[in-house]
Design goal:
The chain has about 170 residues and is mainly beta. Helices cover about 5% and strands about 45% of the residues. It contains one helix and eleven strands; from the N terminus they run ββββββαβββββ. The chain has one helix at about 65-75; strands at about 5-10, 20-25, 30-35, 35-40, 45-50, 55-60, 95, 110-120, 125-135, 140-150, 160-165. It has an eleven-stranded antiparallel sheet with strand order 6-5-4-3-2-1-11-10-9-8-7, with no helix packed on it. β3 (about 30-35) and β4 form a beta hairpin. The radius of gyration is 18 Å and the shape is globular. The model has no long low-confidence stretch (mean pLDDT about 90).
Length: about 170
Amino acid sequence: VENIHIVSFVPDKKEPVQEQWVSRVFRILQIESKGQSVLWDLSSGVKKVKHPGTDLVEITPVSEDKIAEIEAKISGYLGLVPFYDVSRIPPDAKWGPVTDEGLQSAPEGTQVYDLIWEEKAYDGSLSAKKWRVFADPQTSLPQRTEFYEKLPGESEYTLRLIKIVEYINESK
């Protein structure tokens, strides 16, 4: 994947909490959140920030360390999976297809999978986590991800975050 657009939502909100555009070809990462837009142009070595409510764009040079950090983000998993390294997935995590006939949010033909694990909080309590991915059956690429959490004492998972993924070609 060379160019991707990721829109993040929290449940019950119409407006996204964040949008990301990534071009691995042009070495660009743009993030919009709360009306602020930050563009990392690694080929030019600059960061451009447009603050909410103004047309002014602040341009600053980027250090080599920061370029390496942003380059790792651009070439990495882009926040689409819950673990930045597969070795961090707990050994008792469960991965498998979702076969729930009542699953209504998946377009027909979409493959849906869940990764379920537990995490220990600072107070020692365990919370259950679930990452659901909706994948295109032809490309195996994620089209949507959902992150759920079930806190101690709760019987059902609560949807916390939705990410919609669009793959962009240069002509768009």
